[in-house]
Batch of 3 targets.
Target 1
Amino acid sequence: MTYPAKQSRLSRRSVLKLGGMLGAVPIGKSLDKVVAPPPPNPLRSPERWLSSRLVEPLPLPPLEVIALNHLAFGPRPGDLESFRNLGATDEQRLIAFADQQLNPASILDSACDARLINENFQTMQKSLEQLWADHVVNNDQGWEYRMLPLTESERAAWIRAVYSKRQLFEILADFWHNHFNVYGWHSYVGPVFVHYDRDVIRANALGNFRQMLEDVAKSTAMLYYLDNYINQVGGFNENWARELLELHSLGAENYLGVMDPFSVPVDENGLPVGYVDNDVYEAARCFTGWRLDYSSWEPGVGQSGTFLYYPDWHDRANKFFMQKYLPADQAPLKDGLDVLDAIAAHPGTARHIARKLARRLISDNPPEEVVAAAAAVFISHVDSPDQLKRVVRVIILSDAFRTTFGDKIKRPFECAASILRITNADFIPSNEFSWNSDDMGQPLFSYGAPNGYSDEKEDWTGTTSLLQRWQLTNALLEGWIEGSVIDLVSQMPSSVRTPNAIADFWINRILGRPMHPAENRQEIVEFIAQGRNPDFDLPDDMRIERTPRMVALILMSPDFQYR
Amino acid sequence: MSSKKLSRRQFLVGCSSAIAAMAGARLTSLAFANPGESGAYNEDILVVVFLRGGWDAMNVVMPVSGEDRGHYEAARSELQVPVSGEGAAIHLDNQFGMHPAMAPLYDLYTNKNLAIVQAAGLTSDTRSHFDAMQYIELGTPGQKSATTGWITRHLESAPNLPPSILLPALSAGNSQTMSLLGSYETVAMDSPGDFSFTGDWYYKDLQRAALRNLYQGDSWLFQAGIQTLDAVDLIESANPGDYTPANGAVYPGGSFGSNLQTIAQMIKLDVGLRVATIDLGGWDTHEGQGDGSEGYFADLLANLSQGMAALYTDLDTGGASSYTSRMTMVVISEFGRRLRENANHGTDHGHGSTMLVLGGQVNGGQLYGDWPGLGVDQLYDRADLAVSTDYRRILSEILISRLGNSNLDYVFPGYQGYQPMGLVRSIDEPPPILNQKIYLPGVMRQVEP
């Protein structure tokens, strides 16, 4: 497709955002020094942006803080205590938490389910065929109804992020949505988004990667988004094949550019170490004829909107993909399936997926040991139905997981959800909430380019990004957003009355650790005391008026932004 | 001139003590000086437009005659821009024409404000969007490990900027572009009117003051926080308010037009802006790009061209102090697209591209760069337009001749053999004598009934 799609969302802002749709791309980092030190510049001094205060590195917080921020959208009240009751040692507690979270079906989720039922969603139970029939073929109710499967999926995602007890599953669903990103507002993606979210992403999030690749390849959403629905013999379209290799599987780290495919070195198992442009073209030919059952005039094509292998469009000739010979006239689908088999079992794919998962769950630059360990499990369980669950488990139980915090910044989705969670908000996703949260720069399912939202802090620390999260914090805490009610004072024991006690109660509740640097606590105390003695009780009216503003300040502080 | 200048008092009243202390001592000599007054400091402004997705450069400027026209037509039976008749290319010379949707730029071209560099781009072997963008914006082709963007390194190494500038760099839009990676003096902003700290009328100022203390520190997050607070102080004290473009300039609707307007507004606020970046996405036209002259791709080009022309008109405030005389805009995309169209009225990823350079000091009205030809053996990988001009050559010339920064080793490490193309007049040369009013671009002339 030509992202961003030409149709626009109904809300005022999101479509405007797409101007910079490819702006946030991941930044590879290594210690290589490619840039020499700057030449002396007597005029411009760096002091302008350097303060006098040297901040020590963030001390390692308790394990429950790491776990609830890396494997969940932040803690809800009581979550940190629950984690501490899971075992006698940190290791026991983490294993218990991981195994509970990695088996989401075993977690009773009635509170979240009730909220989802309350939304009266119309599309969440529909099959792909029903979605297509109702929202594309027979839709006479206009754009909003056409896109209802998307907007309902978006609301459901927010409710689950805030209320579901299956938090790791929600984190991973978000991860895979970005990994296999499609632009939800594409006019043929939005109507089937429920299918993509439910049957492609969520169905495989803890499953087998090879199966997931195939489900993605055959999904109506991806077929449209990366143009394979029109990929045919005699003039192949390489969009899908290129991103399949570069983003979905082997990764740009294994792309060797324009090179004679016969000169690519092989590894110890005889596999080519990477892919070249010729492999992109050969893969594109392999996927010719992988299209959709949607046409009013072609023979043998119906109107169901589901995947269709169409031999008339398939390039029958022999192919050569990553040093494997594919003879002419293979069985239906086999050329494409051979490509998926080859890339899903390639160690480059294993490392790429392992590194991305570790980046999501540990830090922007995860240590190589974790990546290697997770990649090894990825390869040794390449055919297991729970391959991805095993890979994630290795990452969670690594030393690096337990010893890393604060190298990441919450993205807007995590920031907003964590505010709603820790404040025990009564939250119903309204249009007004979407408009406000979209302004932070991460409207769900609305990223235009196929690489998905960046998972690195450099892309989320710009001035607009930070300012908008402060704005959302105050809007929520001031009660300005329809559907979001936060009553903090009633959650505070009546004995908590002095500025010191109020500040400590909320710092402990929100962060589960002291503020850093320690003197930042004093700033919070002074904010709520406003010159009064911090050991004396605040009058009721001041306690009621100042507590939400002080809590907002904690939520806007650096301490709350870390992941 | 209708630009709203920020008075010293207005600034100091609204501003945080930190910024005021920093700026106070230098207000007389720095960003508040009128253009041309301060002399010692370079005052040129670089605007970088990045076209995300890889634009189809072959349909931006295309051959209109000769053997290459034959190659072009053979490769593009559906997508070719015709030589004559309806939707014909705008002929730039005997050999090349410009897409008709770029008509808003044609007057700027004939007025010699717009230069076009053909077959420009990245010399690295990649047809990946994301690799190509990183190489270009980090300024380190073939390497992705740099932790600063090329514009960041320009700002770090420029020898002729004031000791402090209030707002040297702007990323117009929601996020900071990668060419400004690692810059803690950049403001990323959609619109100055929305850029404020909101909250309870009484408590928000207390929160803001507290945040300044909470974020005081030297690590990445703390610096980003202070950068944000400073930017809010600055924009608020500049009191941007409503903006009316000058000369009746009309920006196109949508984010590109409004972000361009933000750039113009920030330039005119005279807060010291030296570089601005802006993105326009949607160029990855694998399908449905329209026929040669109309459709999706033509609409994108029209949006780009109208926006560029509107910015130029808006900034063309006349005479030697015109903002346009200090502004150089460069338009770049990560690559061009395949010469041969695909079966879906689209084009796949290619190599050589076209770059545009617009400004009051540009030696425009001509095509630059060696044309490699479209014969199959002349193409890159027998498929795409080759690259004859390294994109760094174009940016380097602007850096040296306009921005007065010759530290190429630092900005573009590893770049060798730089030679100027003569794209822009050097800051040392006197400006040409032109009656600007006679040559105003076409967008301005929308007065006929």
Target 2
Amino acid sequence: MQDRPTTVELLEAVREFLEGHVVPRLTERGVRYRTLIALNVLRIVEREIPGREARLRAELAALADLLDRPRDAPPADAALLEARVQEANRALCERIRAGAADTGPGRARVLAHVGAMVEEKLRINDPQRLATFTAARGRP
Amino acid sequence: MSDRGAEPPAEPTADRVRDELAAFIERETRSRVSITAFTALPGGTIRHAWALDVEIATGALVGRHRLIYLLDRGGKPLGSRLGREDEFRLLAAMHGAGVRVPRPYWQLGQGLILERVEGEVVGRRLLRERAYEGVRPRLLEQFGAELARIHAVPPDAVPGLPGSTGRGAARAQLDEIERELREGGEPHPALELALRWLRPRTPATARVVIVHGDYRLGNAVVDTERGLATVLDWELAHLGDGGEDLGWMCLRYWGGVDYPGEPTLGPWERFLDGYAAVSGWRLTPELARYWQVFAHFRWGVIMLRQARRHLEGVERNIELAAIGRRRAEVEWDLLRLLEEG
């Protein structure tokens, strides 16, 4: 086990340093703009790391259900797990191309799954925007 | 794919560019030329941009000219982009037809020298700054009207433009984006759902036009008095079904049209009204839905391409990398459209 700071704590430290001490001194517009983007990228990674593998396992299980496959034990290795999720998404894409999500309950299930995954991506990439989106969705 | 290829070319220095431009304009005008002001502008990810004021001493262009010089950044150009020569001819044709575009002066290698139209481009500032309060209410209508003028320019006014003609144009436009999705090779269920929805609904193209290809808030200069002053960024122009331009404007990403809880310039319909007022033609509800979904699908695929540009080392750029993660926003809106049927 690595010593503290943890991965996320290190990222946080880098981001806080840049925010507090570097950005205020940046005067060139283009550089400042791109630095703010870079900081936002760090925030994404900070949110993404905790629970990342659990999310991948959950996605794999949901895809197995959707594809009527048995829920095999997910691989322990993170890279392998990612490859399996990718493969299952490839299979889902093939089903969609074959018309399995054109109408009826098949369509509803696929839309619900894909919608949930998009929401999960947004929760990591831009939770503020997700909040705006869901608030608007609740409106009449 | 970690092949970064050759080292990226060195950033051109302002002094060198300035000297090159002065020498070039002197040759073109056979006149003494002085560059009285020269500033680098925050360019896009594709191009460098400089603003320059030029005094031409003698000849047909005698006097002071406010110009902009756009120069391609290094790296392999995006597949579907116009060559500089075609872009120059296109601008000349549009300018000749009275469309609000920067007057094109010269083409210099992989660069263009154009009239510089003063005003604001950035959507965020147009929406917030008080100076634009007066023009904001009519901006969407102006955008629509100007697009109708662009689409009124006959397609053969600019020979050699890429794209498709005939009744199958809309189908070819969809084929093109699908091809690009396949090239990436990654599975994207949301985009796949969109494609599956679009295929059986692809309309027969009634009239082929010159499609701008990136017509939106952020690609036009807005003046505090006149409102829409000039339309920029023609490098994605092609022949095809004009519905593509009409739909593109509806993307939330540009910040131009209202979404629930996010009021901006007004409803997308106002833009369509402006278009109809000049062209006499309006998208039917079915076509409006088709080109809305198409716009989201196309933007999703282009975002994939932009992130790949970074990942494959064509252009290492934090903005391009970050775009890869903003695609989820577009998928969100896309799914809302698909859920509605």
Target 3
Amino acid sequence: MVKEIGEKSLVRKMIPNVFKAAVWGIITYVFVGYLPTLLFPMDFLAFGFNQLFDLFVGIAVFFAVITNLFSGTILGYAFSIARGLVMIIYFIFALDGGIISLSMPISEVTASFVVDVKAFLTILVLVNLLGIGKNLLQVTSFLAKKVEANQLRQ
Amino acid sequence: MKQAIRALSIAIIILWIFIIAFAATAVYSVMNLDIGFEETQFFSLNEDVVVSLPFFINNNGYYDISELNVTTRMTDYNGTLLSVSETFVPLVASGSNVETAHNISMDLSDMSMEHTELFFNDSSFELDAFIALNFANVIPAQVSINMTVPWGAYFSNLSVGEIFVRSYNTTHSEVVIPVSFENHSYFDIVGTMQLEVYNNEDELVTSGQTNLNVSSSYGYDEQVKTYSSLEDVSKLTESGEVYFVFETSMFTVERWVTYG
């Protein structure tokens, strides 16, 4: 009986989170995945960058859903930190460590392009690290509040 | 702690707005770059042959393009360096248009001494083009292109036909030397052709000179007439060699060609 009530209250607690996660998932998809394709034609992203873009959309939507689904719990913060780390790895991988090299045929010759985006990558990594730092502070605050509440109850 | 978290959140949002705005405007700017090449021009300057590649950059984007450097390196089929040319554009400001030309020059007088074969045989050059620039002052980019450029010889298929002798007067004979070649180069040949005919014992039989005016992509097929004493003409054998000296304002080249 007690277990049933506990499950019901958990489901009741989860419903707003599920709704929030769905809304954030849609919003993230629209802003990250849909609007850029309207602004910039996707054939511009040739040479496998299309797949990287899809992967970015996937990561962004997944973490938007999962962090909102577990928001208000320690798991929510854990997923936020994970998002920061995954994004850092993704950017390093997508930007080839800061040096993007690609070859493409132009009429009868092959042109090799090398673009040095190390400065841009550094900023992206630093912003994500800042995000991880913020999440760690939030976790500390969250745990401190929980401990405080427990101590007050005792 | 709450205030610190709030401050960090605001800072992160502002930074993300800047990053997204920069990325979007940078992509937009690159897409709105109008780069084009105009018709290639060939001309001679002193002793140099100049291949001029006019190009324009219309920067319709939001960011400047700085330190644009175009370097071309031309080598022959053996990898011997023939020419290195460089064009530097310090700045193509946002909203501005730059028109310039990259000139690839080759010193033909040097070439006539070191790469004589290129004057008589068609060949191809390896052209390595290297373009470096700095986009928005933070993103350096480089483009390298390797291509093969055909080279047309000035005196392609130079040959001497059957030399024959006509009587001219009591002391001299007219020696007729049929000479032919094709001008495969991009330039007209305006100059002189000196020739000396040697028999199979390396004795000079006759010599002469004629003016040349052969347009690009045209052939030369003429009978060059020289006059020699009867004694010298008698030395003419069925086979031998003709020594050519071609002289124009840009180069002087020599060539031995067998006849008979």
